Amino acid sequence: MNPILTRLGLADHDPQLLHDRRGTTLYRAGDTAVKITSGLMAGREGEILRVLGAEPYRDHGWDGERSWLALRWIDGISLWDALDPAHQDVTPATRHRILTKVGAAVRALADLHAVGWTHGDLQPDHIIFEGDTTHLIDLACAQGPADVPFYVHRGGLAHTTAPEIATAILTSDDHVATTPQADIWSLGASLWWSWTRTTPIAYTDPAARRPQLLADVAAARRADLTSTRPWPFPQLEELIMACLAADPGSRPTAKELASRFPRA
Question: Which residues form the Protein kinase domain (predicted)?
Answer without folding.
Answer: 1-264
